[in-house]
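Morning F.,

Quick status update on the modeling queue. The single chain you submitted on Monday has been processed. Sequence for confirmation:
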Amino acid sequence: MNVYAFITPIILALVIFEVLYCSFAKKNYYNFQDTIANLATAIGNQCVNLVVAVVVFKLYGWIYEHYRFFTIDFNWLWAIVLIIAIDFLFYWFHRLGHEINVLWAAHMPHHSSEEMNLAVGLRASVTQRIFSFFFYWPLPLLGFSPEMIYAMTAFHLLGGFWHHTRVIPKLGWFEKWFNTPSHHRVHHGVQTKYLDKNYGELLIIWDKMFGTFQEEEEEVLYGVTSPVSSWNPLDIYFQTWKALIKDAKDAPYFIDKIKIWFMPLGWRPRGLKPYEGIGIGVNPEDQVKFETKPFHKSKVYLFIHLVLGLGFMYLTINTKNELSVLDRSLFSGLIFLMIISWSGILSAKKWALPLEVFRLLGMAAGIVIILDNKYGFNFLSYLTLSTVLLAAISIIYAGLNFRRTSLV
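C-alpha cells below.
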C-alpha cells in the first residue's frame, strides 16, 4: 500500500474542514495569499521528494541488505518501537535544524509563514527531506526494512501535521506526554522565550528530558526573525541558502567559507559585520505581517487553478502511470513555473501574465502531446478538447484581468 496516497486525502480533508470552520466561526486564522503560498511550496516539494525518496529508498535497501544487525519482522509491537525510534531521531534532527546553519537553511521555509493553521503544516522545503531521510540511516542498520521505515515515517508525518492549528486549545493531561497544538504553537513562535523550543513531533517527553520544553503562555507570534516578505516559492525555499552563500563568498578567510555551513545560527565569518536580526516584538500589535495587492479578480482564478494544479502534480508524481523520467522532469518544471506564476499574481507583478500564459500553453501541450503518445488519446478526444478549451478560457481571463491590482 502507498501510505502517502492514503494520508494525502486525510490531510487535504482536514485543511478544508478547518477552513470551513474558521469561516463559519469568523476566526481570522487564514490569509488567502499565505494559504496559496503554503500549498504552492507543498506542490513543488512533492515533485522533488519523488526523486529523493527513490534515491534514499535504494540507499536504505543497500544498508539493510548488506549491513543490518538483525532481521525484524513487521508486527504491531515492532511498529510501535519503530515509531518511537523515528520520533527520537526526529527530535535531534529537528533540534539540530534550529542550531546549525546548513540544516536551518533546509528547515526555515516551514517556519516562514506568519500565520498558524493546518495549511502551514503543508508549507515545505525542497531540501529538508534530503537531510531528514539520511538522518534515519541507523534504522535499516538495526534491521528495519526500507518498507517499514517508509510506512512509519508517513504516519509520523501525519501525527505531526495536526499540531499546526490555533483552533484546538490545551488538552489537559495529554500535554504531559504528547506533543499538541499548544506545544507546537510555541515552537513556531518568534518571541525570545519561545525560540528554539518544543522540537518533539509525537512525544513531548524528549523536550522535557533534554531541556527544550516551554509551556504556551502569552499569545504566540509566528514567523522567523528575518521575514521572507515574499509569496515566491523560490524566495521561501532559498532565502537562508542565499544568505549563507553570500557570507561564504564574502568571507576573507578560506576556513570561514567552510565553517559557516556548520556553525550556529547568527555566526558570521571574521571580517563581516555581526548578524542583526529584525526585532518583531512580543505583542501581536507589534507585528506587521507581509501583505500585497493581487491582480484584479484573481482569487477565484487561483482557487480553480490550485485544484487543477494538485491534479497535475498527482499525474506527475504517480509512479503507477507510464510517464518516463523525461516526462516527469518536464512536468515538474512546468509545475515550478506554475507556482512561481501564482506568486506573481498574488503580488501583481508585471512578469506574472506572460509567465502564466507560457505555463498554461506548456501544460496544455504536455497533457495533449505526452498523454496522447502514452495512452493513445485522439487529438479530438474529450481530454484534448477540454484541455485546450480550459487553457484558452484561462488565458483570456488572465489577459482581461491581470493588468491592474485588486482594490482590496
